[in-house]
Amino acid sequence: MVTEYIRYRLSPERLDGFEAGYERAAAALRAAPQCVDYELMRSVADPDRYILRITWTSADDHLRGFRGGPHFAAFFAEIRPYVQDIEEMTHYAPTPVTGPGGGAPPTLYEWAGGTDAFLRLCDAFYRLVLADDLLAPLFAGMEPDHARHVATWLAEVFGGPETYSARRGGYPAMLSRHLGKAITEPQRRRWVNLMMDAADEVDLPADPEFRAAFVGYLEWGTRLALSNSQPGATPPRRAPVPHWGWGVAPPYQG
C-alpha cells in the first residue's frame, strides 16, 4: 500500500464549498476498490490549509486502476475547481519507524498482564486438555515445553515481544504443528471452550472489550488451524505472525 498526500492552500474566498465538494467526491473513493481509506484534515493554526490523505492499494492501482476506471470522472468533477490550489501531491511509502505513543491504548498483551499471564493461561489450558477425552489424543506426545511455546506465540500475537519468531521461527513453525492433523470441528470448538475456561481459572481480564478481542483471535486462529490441518491442504507456507488488537471496542478506562 502507499499513502498519497495532497496539500491545499486556498484563498479565503475559495474556502466555501471545499469540504462539501470533497464530501461528494468521497463517494467515488468509497466505491473504488483501489482506495483503502481517506481523510481530509484542516490546519488548526492556518485554516486555509488542508491535507487530504488517501491510502491506495498500490501506486499503480491509483494511477492506472483508479484514474483509468469508472469512478475517477465523478471524483474529478467535484475537485476540479480546486486543482489550482494544490501545493503538493505525492505518494509516500511507510518506513520501519512506526509505533504507538504514550497516549495510545495498552496492547492486549499489556492489558492481560504480560508474558507471565500467558504462561499461566497455557499451563492451565494444557492441564485441561490432557484430561479431556476429545483433545487428549490430539496432543499425545506433546513436547514438555509445548505450553510455554504456545504462551510465547499468544504473547507475540497480542502485542508482546517477538520471542516466538526469534526462537521458534514464526508463522512457518506454527503452521507446521497443524499440517496433517485432520482436526475436527468438535475438537476446534472444545479447544476454544477450554481456553476460555483456562482464562477464567487464571483470572485473565474479564472486561467485555478484552474478552471480545481475545475470543475473536481464538475463533479466527482455530478456524485457520482447522482448515490448514485437513488432508491435502496447501496453505501458504510463509506469512507474518498476526498482530491482534482491540478491534472496534478499545479498553474502557473510566
Tally of strands: 4
Largest sheet: 4 strands, antiparallel
Task: Indicate the percent of residues in helices.
Answer: 40-55%
Structural class: alpha+beta
Distance between the termini: 36 Å
Q: What is the oligomeric state here?
A: single chain
Question: Could you provide a short overview of the structure?
Answer:
By secondary structure, this protein is α+β, with helices and mostly antiparallel strands. The protein contains ten helices and four strands. The longest helix is centred in the last third of the chain and has 21 residues, at 208-228.
Task: Considering the chains and any ligands shown, give keywords for the structure.
four-stranded antiparallel sheet; elongated; about 250 residues; alpha+beta
Chain-wise SSE layout:
Layout: E1 2-9, H1 18-31, E2 35-42, E3 49-56, H2 59-66, H3 72-79, E4 86-92, H4 108-112, H5 115-130, H6 146-157, H7 163-168, H8 170-176, H9 185-201, H10 208-228
Describe this structure in words.
It is a single chain. The chain is an alpha+beta fold. It is 45% helix and 12% strand. It has a four-stranded antiparallel beta sheet. A hairpin with a 6-residue loop joins strand 2 and strand 3. The longest helix is centred in the C-terminal third of the chain and has 21 residues.
